[in-house]
Amino acid sequence: MSQPIAFIDLQAQRRRLGERLNSAIAAAVEGGQWVLGPQVAQFEKDIAAWAGVKHAIACANGTDALLLVLRAWGVGLGDAVFVPAFTFAATAEVVALAGAAPVFVDVLSDTFNMNPASLEAAIALVKKDGELKAKVVMPVDLFGQPADYRSIAPIAKREGLKLFCDAAQGFGGSLNGKRAGSIGDAAATSFFPAKPLGCYGDGGACFTNDDALKDLLLSLRMHGQGSDHYEHVRVGYNSRLDTIQAAILIEKLKIFDDEIEKRNAVARRYNEAFAGSNRIKTPVVIEGATSTWAQYTMQVTDRAKFQADLKEAGVPTAVYYPIPLSKQRAYAHYPSAPTPVSEALCGQVVSLPMHPYLDETTQNRVIAAVLASAG
Ligand SMILES: Cc1ncc(COP(=O)(O)O)c(C=O)c1O
User: Fold this and answer.
1) pLDDT tens, 261-291?
2) Which DSSP category does 285 fall into?
3) 38, 137, 256, 358: which one has the fewest Cβ atoms less than 10 Å from its Cβ?
């Protein structure tokens, strides 16, 4: 019996970083400033420079990072925020938590990202209904590649909407040489362990070039703090990044460029191996973009059989996502453009093992199993 294959092998990265991580964690514990210690400020500086954006504001998780920005912009009751129907629940959840309405937009079948034509349709719908005020468009960089901001940004500008990038999966990707985090009026990411840049627990960050927004975010993450620790000028949150997590992320960021290259090499090998199969649709990266390959997600016709075959061969697979948000019980009552592509994708997508340390021998086992089932 050959070794089981990991879907994401976080221990391989841990072995590579080894003592560097252990010493960073020990130093954070010894330092005694366990919440918002000096490592947090250092990490915010490092990651902002890496992304090419003026400010990074670290917080407790990616969901909070999204919510903090919406709250800072005053998004709330009566406002519409345009989100893709095919994404993780947090994208729409934060809109509802802010008191506003998520309005669902369909995605493109080759990139899985927001369809600009469907965004236009959703905006028209909101205008026609006249009940909500269109405020923000929130594309998601799904599975690691930036949304089509070249088409979406002009629509946002024309309609007077803020452009807010949910880069929870896409941090590490770029478009036209601009890295995720530096695109849009603001962006947010997650450091959940399975993300391309993940910590050892929960973590997140907001990004912006806007000084006033940065000040609001710093206040909101600290209970709406004013100029003094016990002065509260707005209702905020307790949403800080732990010092230990920042210490881990400082070390992980140093090898992130190399890991992104390795992820791309893995994706290239998959794409080449599956190019000849007419029963597999491989993922497409748009011109001028790089993906951080949070997932390698392809489409197959008979997914249940495919997953069963791969399981039999010892290859783990996953389905992101089985139900579009526009059809989820928690969100089905919100407005939506027609979402036929999202609905179809939910029945066809399947993700394969993907991480920077997937060696060629192991990847060949995955490829052989895939081709045996759907080649
Ligand atoms: C697209 C998207 N948005 C938001 C989030 C929320 O991030 P977190 O799990 O850190 O709260 C996630 C992560 O799971 C995500 O995939």
Assistant:
1) 999 999 999 999 999 999 999 999 999 999 9
2) -
3) 38
- Does the CB atom of residue 168 touch ligand 1 within 6 A? yes
Compute the distance between CA of residue 229 and CA of residue 246 in angstroms, rounded to an integer: 22
Query: pLDDT tens for residues 337-369?
Result: 999 999 999 999 999 999 999 999 999 999 999
Residue that is written with structure tokens 């369809």 in the block? 115
- Which atom of ligand 1 is closest in space to residue 169's alpha carbon? 16
> CA dist 252 to 5, 20, 205, 256, 302, Å?
23, 10, 15, 6, 38
> How many angstroms separate the alpha carbon of residue 168 from the centre of ligand 1?
5
Q: How far apart are CA 40 and CA 78, in angstroms?
A: 36
CA dist., res. 305 & res. 314, Å (int):
14
- Nearby residues of 272 by Cβ (< 8 Å), 6 or more positions away: none
Of the candidates 264, 318, 259, 258, which has an alpha carbon nearest to the alpha carbon of residue 291? 264
Pocket lining: 58 vs ligand 1, CB cutoff 6 Å: no
- The span from the CA of 244 to the CA of 145, in Å, is 29
**256, 82, 54: which is closest to 171 by C-alpha?**
256
Distance from residue 155's CA to the centre of ligand 1 (Å) = 25
> Is 176 in contact with 151 (CB distance < 8 Å)?
no
Give the CA angle between residues 44, 143, 88 to the nearest 5°: 85
- Residues 6 or more apart whose CB falls under 8 angstroms from that of 322 comprise 346
Kindly tell me if the per-residue pLDDT of 1 is higher than 70: no
> Which of 8, 59, 61, 63 to probe ligand 1 with, by most ligand atoms within 8 A of CB?
63
DSSP string for 97-131: HTT-EEEEE-B-TTT-SBPHHHHHHHHHHHHHH-S
Could you tell me the pTM of the whole model?
0.98
Contact in structure between 168 and 189 (CB atoms under 8 Å)? yes
Ligand 1 pocket member 190 (CB < 6 A) = yes
Decide: residue 150, CB within 10 A, 0-12 exposed, 13-18 middle, 19+ buried: middle
